[in-house]
User: What shape does this take?
Amino acid sequence: MTSDKIAILLSGLAAIAWIIWYFFLARRSSAQATGDPRGIQEVTITVQGGYEPSEVRVRAGRPVRIVFDRRETNPCSEEVVLSDFAIRRFLPPNRRTAIEFTPASPGTHEFVCGMGMLHGKVIVT
Assistant: This one.
């Protein structure tokens, strides 16, 4: 095996390892939504190469407002989908977009980008 083939093989293995770590093993951050006097639970999620925080905790039966602060133009992050709540929303680049819903019961609900590559969770207690 020639040195250029070895270099290509090692580069490919490194790329595979990074993809596995990034999408499956990387520790994700979590945040508790804060309430306002009207009872709306609110949290801001920064969208830049992923969701930060990627996990949000809210209480059931109270309105939730998630503000997605998209700080990039990557086409993968231009849409967010919360399928359990029938929400699909376009996120304009370099803008904040609020999404409101009221979770009825406890559970874990995933949200993803339009391409299904960026992942996050809403954990309802």
Q: What stands out?
A: The mean pLDDT is 89. Residues 28-124 form a domain with the Immunoglobulin-like fold (CATH 2.60.40.420).
